[in-house]
Amino acid sequence: GDDEPPRTVTASYEVKLRRPTPLNVELIITSQITEIDGKKVHVDMMMEANGKVCATGQGVFVAVEEGHPAYHRWS
């Protein structure tokens, strides 16, 4: 219900490189929220080139509020 997404910091992330990513081709990156746990959001991602998966990954991002050192980096 917010007008804009919350400001977040990265708690953890992991990327698995599946195959070489070619140059000069369109890359398609998709992501999906897999879990929301209070202020934490878990996200899975996939990167494709020429219809083949080049990388997958997941991350955990935590919403921060006014007063957090990273809060104003989005201003």
Rg calc: 15 Å
Quaternary structure annotation: single chain
Give a quick account of the main beta sheet: strands, pairing sense, barrel closure. 4 strands, antiparallel
The structure class reads mainly beta
State the helical fraction: under 10%
Arithmetic mean pLDDT = 92
User: How far is it from the N-terminal to the C-terminal residue, by CA?
Assistant: 21 Å
Strand order in space, largest sheet: 1-4-3-2
N to C succession of SSEs: EEEE
Low-confidence stretches: none
- How many separate helices? 0
Strand segment count: 4
> Which of globular, elongated, flat, extended, rod-shaped describes the shape?
elongated
The percent range for strand residues is: over 45%
Q: Can you describe this structure?
A:
- The protein is built from no helices and four strands.
- With about 80 residues, it is mostly beta strands.
- A four-stranded antiparallel beta sheet has the order 1-4-3-2, with no helix packed on it.
- The model has no long low-confidence stretch (mean pLDDT about 90).
